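**User:**
Make up any protein.

**Assistant:**
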Amino acid sequence: MVPPSMDTKRWRETLQIGRSKLRHTYLKNGNAAALLHGHSRLVDKLLQTIWRHLSLPSSSVLIAVGGYGRQQLFPGSDTDLLILLPSNPDEMLGQKLEQLIGLLWDTGLEVGHSVRTLPECLEEAKDITVQTNLLEARFLAGNRTLFQRFTVAAQENLNAQDFFEAKLLEQQRRYARFHDTAYNLEPNLKESPGGLRDLQNILWVSRALGLGDNWNKLALGSIITVQEARQIRSHERFLENLRIRLHYLARRREDRLLFDHQTLLAEQCGYTDKAQHRASEQLMQRYYRTAKAVSLLNEILLKNLRERTSPAALRQVDPINETFQARNGLLEITDTDAFQREPSIILESFLLLQQHPELSGMSATTLRALWRSTPKINAAFRRQPSNQALFMQIIRQPRGLTHELRLMNQLGILGRYIPAFGRIVGQMQHDLFHVYTVDEHIMMVVRNLRRFTVPEFAHEFPLASGLINNFERPEVLYLAGLFHDIAKGRGGDHSTLGTVDARRFCRQHGLSEESTDMVTWLVENHLVMSATAQKQDTSDPEVIESFANRVRDQRHLVALYLLTVADIRGTSPKVWNGWKGKLLEDLFRATQRYLASGSTPLDTHLQTRQTEALSILRLYAFANDAHQALWAQLESGYFLRHEAQEIAWHVRNLHAKVNSGQPVVKARLSPAGEGIQVMIYTPDKDDLFTRICSFFERNDFNIVEAKIHTSRHGYALDSYVVLDEANRAAHYRDLLSFIEYELSQRLTPDKAPEPPLQGRLSRHLKHFPITPEISVKPDEKRVYHVLSIVAGDRPGLLSRIAQVLLKHRIHLHTAKIATLGERAEDTFLITGAELENPKEVLRLEADLRQQLQATH
């Protein structure tokens, strides 16, 4: 007899050679089904050989379960096995089973196994995951009679209706883990909404109900049509191929479409870079469109299966009109061919959902009929005045707009009705701060606008809620939200291109000139308010005047503010924060005051700010002259850039330390409601900004604003707002004390400066880098220069910039640090002799670019 070690080596080689051949053949022909079945058969033969070799008792049985059971064994997947015994194993059998599992691992199989008796199987099947696995059991070796008893008992133990409800609940929980969206940047091909699990769920439920375990059987049973079966299989093949290639690329089981693999995967699938879209973006757009279709099919077919099996489906029918009725709280079309004969009722169905709050959705037959009728939405359909009127009725309804637009998008109707929207469906944006596809982002923006109108959410954005409830014809806001990014990915300025689309739509749909002008103006200017708030010195009256001239009047200001807040909130859950909210609100209120009263002389601004600060100081019982020693050293620019309460805070802490030789550092919670405000007062020195940046970066604080002022007697009076990246808000008092003590120590003259933090690039930034954009231009008054930087964010970035400025003897006056996800958009107001020399400016830009492109 050959020693077991030799057998193990031979089996391992057999498995490796077999897998290598399968991989080679697959990479030549791309046949997913052949690969999955071939891999299953290869493992079948190996397992049967080992089972016989070990002479396991003839009363036991080896069973394939799970994905292996249905003969869909992916390259990196576990081999799921059930070893069924007639009774609990004795010691000798237990040792043999241990030897079996050890041999399988030594052979190179990653085995997931369980050893059970029949009663144990039935007991364990109370768990829905186990029950699902047993549903796909397939005989491999051993006692066929016991296997037959097992399959009969498992089927008898299965309550189809309970199984159905359990699988629906399981799916809801799975969706919740992925935030109920298929549009994740790194989706899971198997588990994400719209992934392979959604298709498997349909077959599991239909199999439990005795209706069929594959798409052909469902078609034969009229559960789906032959065409639908073909479409489903096409989507399934695409997802299977992606998963197979992903396993081969990762050389292990990996079901997430990680950034690390997207580019290589796209190349393998035949995509190439184009002018406006990377190969990986084209691949991901197809994936997202597939996931959307799979999610829709999952919803339609599970609803259809429920209607077929639920006796309640025959009751509670209430007519709505000649074409539609309500059945069990769902909108149902009375004749499934009606959409084909009379396409205009396609839009009417969505309007009815809005007008009947008692309806929770559409029936499976209605959804399927709508899905089949989408080709009817063509140029003639779009030109028909009655259809245009119906669409505008949908936009103007007081409830249900977000839900119906999402459903229209899911069914492909919105993209057919607005062709420009159809082009951006599933289009990813690798700009490092949008985490949704363009269409999903647009839906989020419209949702946010509608959310402002709901009283239950008024506490989230009180200003926005108050403004929108007094805004006439709010449909202009929703249309602006719908069109603001609709031209993404075409090349050129998407705001300008989108304006053309929006104007054409508004005129076709009969909007007044005033409303048309408002929609197009909002689309064209939707980035202006955020850029002004985050990149310009809004304490400068001339900045406010320029912005006010652009918005023209209060209505345009309100509309732009509402759209801007909704837009930023719709990019990513991480991009919005209280600080950004305060910047926008401050700009809004300053512009509102300007529009109400007109321009105000600079001296009046200064006097007003100082008077407010003195009033605050009197509340703290300060003497009338307490401020004089400090204010005598400060120039007018200081009073313009700081709010009255901040000026008073500075006086309270510095009135007795105007000539202090030691650094004074004070910290408090930011009045903006988020973050920490830090005041630093110390004799000025060249590397001060570098030291401060290094301290905050090393201690997980993100600088969002820096106001730098140098007094007449050579002191730096700097004000920073920082956000706590480590989420230590529960210990904020300790944080304030830590900042005050540690930062003052770091700023003492005898302390050597620390080198910049060497932070690593994120995986997203590594695979989708941003080419740094650097601009140095004089401001309108030619007093300062404006340094604008756009780059991928990373730890230590600001320190790197500070070191370059120090090297070139550049003096910093104000910094606005805008971090959008993993994208930094920073603006600095600077002065320096080198800035007057064009060659030196080029050297400055080159040094900054070198630092920003560093990969470590």
Notes: The chain has a mean pLDDT of 90. DSSP finds 39 helices and 16 strands in the chain. The longest helix spans residues 279-309. The first strand starts at residue 61 and ends at 64.
